[in-house]
Amino acid sequence: MDHRRRRVVAGTAGAAAAATFGWPLSGARAERNEQAGADPDVHIELRAVQERVALRPGAPTRVWRYRGSVLRGDAGTLEASSDTYLGPILRVRRGQRVRLDLVNELPEPTIVHWHGLHVPDTMDGHPRHAIAPGQRYVYEFTVRNRAGSYWFHPHPHGRTGAQVYFGLAGLFLVSDDEEAALGLPDGRYDLPLVLQDRSFDADNQFVYLESDLPGGVPADNLGRPPIGGPGMMGPGMMGGGMMGGGMGRGGMGGGMGSMMARMMGVLGDEILVNGRSSAILSVERRPYRLRVLNGSNTRIYKLAWHDGSPLVVIGSDGGLLAAPVRRDYVMLGPAERVDLWVDFARWSAGSELALQSLAFDGAMNMGGMMMGRSALPDGAAFRVLALRVGDGPQGSQETAPPRRLSDLPPADPRAAINFDHPKVFELTMQRMAWGINGRTFEMLGVTPYETVRLGTHELWEFRNDATTGMMGMAMPHAMHVHGVQFRVVGRSVSGGFPDYRDSVAAGFVDEGWKDTVLVMPGERVRILVHFADYPGLFLYHCHMLEHEDGGMMRNYRVMA
Ligand code: C2O
Ligand code: CU
Ligand code: CU
């Protein structure tokens, strides 16, 4: 297909989209009522920019990243990360009123989504709010979430996978009084670990999908026009595009491999922690809090200590659990978080440890063909992070975390108005396109089935058994609901599904508040969702970003 022609077509589609939805200059306008014009406690400007970062010896890597500055309020709200592409860490307290200005300095539309935060729909970063290059989107909301590890990343339709892969992501850490009273490890003993996989070409450039130039229009093998904005083709991006020269090194070097990766998901062959490769972390013989985020596009981790020591889990997506739980390993799908307590006094000074991802089955039943696209298939074993235990009182005893962590009410499915008839969401693949109940994403489309009433609870069940008969198309999905935290109230397997479960089932952390849940092939996961406070149009989707970009995403509407 003629490249130029496709770009023109995309430009037209973008213009049409702009006309239909309007590019909001300020999302804050809709929020005047709630905010009552009060000044924010913190005002941050977040720019999405193109940069070069020295990630490995040799040529710097061209990346897209968030750069932040505090315009008002506590300067400690932002912690910039050096020598990586990751965005700054934002630290806020529950109850704070924040204003965040997104400035788009990329050559294509973007929008920021605050993953896990409970905010009004105009503040949520829905793709209908994507802004064109040069524009600004103003977010203003009060942080209502409990203490926890949330994060932010782009959400323009069809381009989320690419923009995250090129580097756009950051942590949004919320603290509150309940958490502070526990005296958990803080400061440098409170360590975020953002796990991502990337492939580099010989020139140190990220390899995403072939013919996918950052700033260009993705080749859409699924046959739908990409949603883009006007002016997304920066002329400067044409020749010396970021990925120029590196093309074709990753994956199978052919149209088929690229098409399959675009559909099934992109895996990198190198694991980066906090945006750095071959990370070695020096730790002291004392307790730490490790906040682990799976920020990968598609990869699932089966986290474990190298020596089989149990992982002590104190929190998940939506903050602290009621009490610590112990797991031999923890399954972490894309966008999921887990908060670990570890006292390195367990090991002697000078020892070398590793956080690993263990082998597991059920990742991708595509046989050799899919495996060919990455040197590191999903479900393979690898080391995530090496640690070196330094000083600390010799002979000191390993300490345990607080026995009670938080006031977490038990989930009561009977609160749901559809207790007797949970809504079923089948994860589907039809005509080579991902979908939910057979429908792919429509920018403003929402069905009556996807409409809920403000203030009610509902039971939703994600079923990952629709693709069973489809010759190996069965694969895990990481289902995410915007704007809420939910509870997992059931996980079951539909009849006759394979034995892979033995290698994953003990690793789910379904106890706490969640916003993303891994649904393995054949599984049915039931969640209890409360649609409180905010009417409007929100998303739910698979957080394997190529599935999301490929249509496994839908709107739900909260009716006042
Ligand atoms: Cu982190 Cu719509 O997602
Ligand atoms: Cu989200
Ligand atoms: Cu998926």
- The fraction of residues in strands falls at 35-45%
Report the count of strand segments.
Answer: 32
Average of pLDDT: 85
Separation of the first and last Cα atoms? 46 Å
Low-confidence stretches: 1-35, 213-254, 365-372
Q: In terms of structural class, how would the helical and strand content be classed?
A: mainly beta
Helix content estimate: under 10%
Shape: globular
Strand order of the largest sheet: 12-11-10-14-19-16-17
Q: What's the helix count?
A: 7
For this structure, the quaternary state is single chain
**Radius of gyration, Cα only, in angstroms?**
22 Å
Bound molecules: CU-O-CU linkage, copper (II) ion
Taking the sheet with the most strands, its summary is:
7 strands, mixed
What does this structure look like?
- The protein is mainly beta.
- The protein is built from seven helices and 32 strands.
- It has helices at 3-21, 32-35, 160-165, 177-180, 255-264, 367-371, 545-549; strands at residues 42-53, 61-72, 78-79, 89-93, 97-104, 112-115, 136-142, 148-154, 170-175, 190-198, 270-273, 276-277, 280-283, 287-294, 301-305, 311-316, 319-327, 330-332, 337-343, 352-357, 382-389, 423-430, 433-436, 451-453, 457-463, 477-481, 486-493, 513-514, 516-519, 523-530, 536-542, 553-559.
- The strands form six sheets. It has a seven-stranded mixed sheet, with no helix packed on it.
- The protein is globular and about 65 Å long.
- The N and C termini lie far apart (46 Å).
- The model is unreliable at 1-35, 213-254 and 365-372 (pLDDT under 50).
- Bound molecules: CU-O-CU linkage and copper (II) ion (2 copies).
- One copper (II) ion binds at residues 477, 542, 544, 547, 552.
